[in-house]
Amino acid sequence: xxxxxxxxxxxxxxxxxxxxxxxxxxxxxxxxxxxxxxxxxxxxxxxxxxxxxxxxxxxxxxxxxxxxxxxxxxxxxxxxxxxxxxxxxxxxxxxxxxxxxxxxxxxxxxxxxxxxxxxxxxxxxxxxxxxxxxxxxxxxxxxxxxxxxxxxxxxxxxxxxxxxxxxxxxxxxxxxxxxxxxxxxxxxxxxxxxxxxxxxxxxxxxxxxxxxxxxxxxxxxxxxxxxxxxxxxxxxxxxxxxxxxxxxxxxxxxxxxxxxxxxxxxxxxxxxxxxxxxxxxxxxxxxxxxxxxxxxxxxxxxxxxxxxxxxxxxxxxxxxxxxxxxxxxxxxxxxxxxxxxxxxxxxxxxxxxxxxxxxxxxxxxxxxxxxxxxxxxxxxxxxxxxxxxxxxxxxxxxxxxxxxxxxxxxxx
Amino acid sequence: xxxxxxxxxxxxxxxxxxxxxxxxxxxxxxxxxxxxxxxxxxxxxxxxxxxxxxxxxxxxxxxxxxxxxxxxxxxxxxxxxxxxxxxxxxxxxxxxxxxxxxxxxxxxxxxxxxxxxxxxxxxxxxxxxxxxxxxxxxxxxxxxxxxxxxxxxxxxxxxxxxxxxxxxxxxxxxxxxxxxxxxxxxxxxxxxxxxxxxxxxxxxxxxxxxxxxxxxxxxxxxxxxxxxxxxxxxxxxxxxxxxxxxxxxxxxxxxxxxxxxxxxxxxxxxxxxxxxxxxxxxxxxxxxxxxxxxxxxxxxxxxxxxxxxxxxxxxxxxxxxxxxxxxxxxxxxxxxxxxxxxxxxxxxxxxxxxxxxxxxxxxxxxxxxxxxxxxxxxxxxxxxxxxxxxxxxxxxxxxxxxxxxxxxxxxx
Lengths: 412, 412
Hints:
Two copies of one chain form a homodimer.
Chain A: H1 5-13, E1 31-32, H2 43-60, H3 64-67, H4 73-85, E2 92-94, H5 98-112, E3 118-122, H6 127-140, E4 145-149, H7 154-157, E5 162-168, H8 180-189, E6 193-197, H9 209-212, E7 216-219, E8 234-237, H10 281-292, H11 299-320, E9 327-328, E10 340-344, H12 348-357, E11 360-361, E12 363-365, E13 369-373, H13 381-396
Parallel strand pairs in A: 1-11, 3-4, 3-5, 5-6, 6-7
Antiparallel strand pairs in A: 2-8, 7-8, 9-10, 10-13, 12-13
Helix pairs in contact in A: 1-13, 2-10, 4-10, 5-6, 11-13
C-alpha cells in the first residue's frame, strides 16, 4: 500500500509535537532538514537576546552579573540540559565549545586511570574529538595513544589496557546510534572510563546518561538544542566523580572564590571547576531560550517522532525513487538511528546543491553522503513528503548535472 | 586655581572624541565608570545582533556560514582589533576567552624555549592568567615553575633561566602601566619570550605590539572594546612565529581543512591554528559592532583623553575632598597609567556601594581599592566633575555607613 501526501498530513494531525513548530521562525517555502548542523531560530531567542542587550547590558550594565544572575547562567542553562540527557541538574554546565569540553573531560578521565595510556575511539567519531585527544596526548607525552578502530571492533578492542572509551553516540554521517548502555557497561567491566559526545543526541531524543552509568559527556548547543550559531556547548561530569575529577584549564570561573583574586588556584567543588573564562552571556541567552522550548515536551514523544520521520523518509525514497542510485546509509531500524537519515550517492554533492536550490536544505558529508536532519520539534511529516518529491524531481530531471551545483563552498 | 564644572564643560567642547558618546546607549542619570569591567552598549551592536538573529540565522540558516561569512568572523574581527594593538591583521584572531588564549600562547611560548622551565610574572597580574599558567605547568610535569615577583623586581628576576615573561600591561587594580617596550627588550636580551595580556589596554589607548617586538599577546573583548558580556577574547601571534608556534588545543577550526573531516590533525598555517571550536557568532557580532566604532578614531586622541580624564579625576578629588582618607593608588603621571584611576580607602567597599546607589558606577577590588574606569569614547569631563561631586557627598554625609552598603554580592 503506497503512502500519499494526505497520509503524511494525517500523521501531522496526530502528532503531539506539531504545536511546537510555531515556536520557530522558519522561512517560508523552505524545508529545513539541517537542524543537526544548525538548529532553527526559536522566536523566543530573538526576544530574549534583544532584552538582554537593550535592557540588561544597555541599562543595567555591570550590575546585571548579580541583578540578572548572569554569573549563574552556565549552571542554570546546564541544569535545563540535564533533563534531556538523563543527568542531575548539578552535573551539567553550559560552557565553551564541544572541542574544549572534550579536552577537559578526557583529561579528567585519564587522571582517574593513571596506570593506563590508551584512549579508544572509532572511525566514525567526529574529527574534532579525535584532534583534541591527539593534542592532549602530545601534551602529556609520548606514552599516550589514541586507538581508532572500525565501528564493529570496539567491543573486542575494549581490553584492560584502555583508560577511556570515547565515542560519539550518533554517527554524524550515517546517524547510526551506539548502544550507550551496553558499551558503557563493557567499558566499566574493563575498568575503563566512558566519555560520550552527545552532539547529535541532546534535544533529538532522550539520553539516559545516569541510567547507563556514563562517567563524562559533552555535547553541542547549536544543533538540536537550537542555541544559535556557535552556541556554547555543554559538559557532564557524573556526581560520583565530583570530588576527584580534575581538569587542567584553571580559569577564574572554576576557582573556589573567583572574586577574591587570590594568586593560587583552588578548584571549586563540583561541576563548577569545569568552567574556565567569563561566560558568553549573549550566546547563553539564545541557548537558554532554545532549551525553554523543551520544558513541556514529553521526551518519549521526541523519540517516537524522530524515528517515525526517518521511517517515512526511507519508505518514501524507496517508493518514489526506485533505481535512483540512492543507497540508504543509515540503519533501517529506527531504534538504531539518531534523528537523521543519510543516503549515499556518487554525485551526492551536486544532488544536495540542487535540492538546496529548490529550498530543501540538508547537507553533504564527504565522500558521498546526503544527510537529512529531522528535528522533531519543527519538522513535519508533510515536510518529508515534499522533500522527497523535490529529490525525485532533482533525480528525474538530472538537475544536479548543472555546473553551478559542482562549485564547492568554504563550509559544506 | 581651582577647577569648576564650566571648566570641565569647556574640555568636553574641545574634545575630538566627544561625538562618539552618542554611539552608545547609556542609561539616563548614570555616570558609568566601569567600562574596564563591562564596556557600554554600542547602539550598533543591538541592531547588528538583531539582524544576525532574525535574518541570517532565522532566514538564511545554515547557508549563512558562507553567505554572511560567519566562518571568516574570527579572522575578520581579529583584523579590526589589530590596528588598536599595533599588529598586522593576519596576526590577530577573536576567539575563546582570555584565559584560554593565555593557555594557548603560553604553551606555544614554552615550546619555543624547550631548554628553559620558568614562567616569570608579577603579583599584579590578573589571577586567571596565573591560574592558567599553574594548570599548564601541572600538565607539563613538575619541572615547570611559575615565579611571581613583586612589580619592582621583574627586571632583576629576568635571567637566562626564564622561558617566558608573562605580564598584564595595565594593573587591573591600580591602573599602573608597564613599560612594554623596555620589558620586552629586557626579556629578549635574555632570550626569553614576551607574552602580554592587553585586557585593560586594547581600546583604551594605542598599543604597539610590533613596535615593541612582542611575541604573543591576549586580551579581552568586553572591556574597552565594548563587545558585550563575556564577548570573545583575542589572541596575537607575531608573524615571525607563525611557522613554528604550536598550541595543544587541536580543534577542527585550527585544522588545515576543517570540512575534509580527516581523522588526523594538521594545523592550518598561520594564526588560524590558534582557533579551536565553532566560533560564537552572536557574541562575535556584538564585538565587531563595538570595534567598528573605532574605525574613524585617531588613536592618539584616545591616549590624550584617557590621560586627561584621569588627571582631572585626581585633581578634583584633591581639590574637593581634602582629608577624606582617600589615597591615590594609581600613578600620578598619565603616561604611567592605563585608562583608570584608583583610590584606596579602608571602607572602600561600602563607599563604592553608596556611590553606585547615587548612579556613579565604578567597582571595588579587594582589599581596599575603589576603581574608576575611564572609557575615552563615552566618558565626558563633566562626568568626572559629577562623579567627584557625588563622592564628596558620600564622604561628607557618611552615607557609606548605612548597613545596606556592606552586603556583599556574588560578583563584585
